[in-house]
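Is this the right way to post structure tokens for a design question? Let me know if I should format differently. Anyway, here goes:
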């Protein structure tokens, strides 16, 4: 299951809440070059250098990789194989390119677009502890990223996180 949506749409919060009650799912680790010193501790990312990221890309370790707001993001083949090999289902958050790449490799990938009101997205981006350049890049991409909803299997449009998690449970049939 891949949650897709603009920056600050709540993908990680929704997934974290869902995963807490569904031990049959496991979070797919994401590797990023994003500066961890600018962030609150975050269980969703493993922070790596740009050099490490490039090596992982060149070696074929990554099933998906992308650059977003000047930072590299990717997921490893071995992590997917480990999760699936344990009998669990994979849950992750990605951009649409990563989600579509996973769909080409795995037939049973479900993509779910997390839709949030534009003003709420903008307010959350502006409150982030990141550089002005990163904020501008994220703000500029909102209108482009909302078009990705049509490429996803399902859309969750929510007012609050409890509602979003309830919709996710319904969408996934549990």
């Amino acid at each position: 299951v891949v949650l897709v949506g603009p920056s600050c749409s709540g993908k990680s919060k929704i997934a974290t809440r869902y995963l807490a009650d569904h031990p049959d799912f496991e979070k797919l680790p994401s590797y990023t070059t994003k500066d961890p010193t600018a962030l609150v501790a975050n269980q969703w990312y493993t922070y790596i250098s740009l050099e490490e990221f490039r090596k992982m890309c060149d070696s074929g370790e990554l099933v998906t990789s992308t650059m977003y707001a000047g930072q590299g993001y990717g997921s490893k083949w071995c992590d997917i194989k480990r999760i699936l090999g344990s009998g669990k289902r994979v849950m992750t958050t990605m951009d649409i390119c990563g989600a579509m790449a996973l769909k080409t490799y795995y037939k049973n990938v479900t993509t779910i677009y997390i839709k949030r009101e534009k003003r709420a997205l903008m307010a959350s981006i502006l409150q982030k502890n990141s550089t002005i350049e990163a904020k501008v890049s994220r703000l500029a991409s909102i209108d482009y990223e909302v078009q990705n909803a049509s490429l996803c299997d399902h859309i969750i449009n929510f007012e609050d996180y409890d509602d979003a998690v309830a919709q996710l449970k319904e969408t996934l049939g549990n």
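Format looks fine. Someone answered above. Worth noting: The chain has a mean pLDDT of 91. The helical segments are 11-20, 50-59, 77-85, 96-105, 118-127, 132-146, 161-171.
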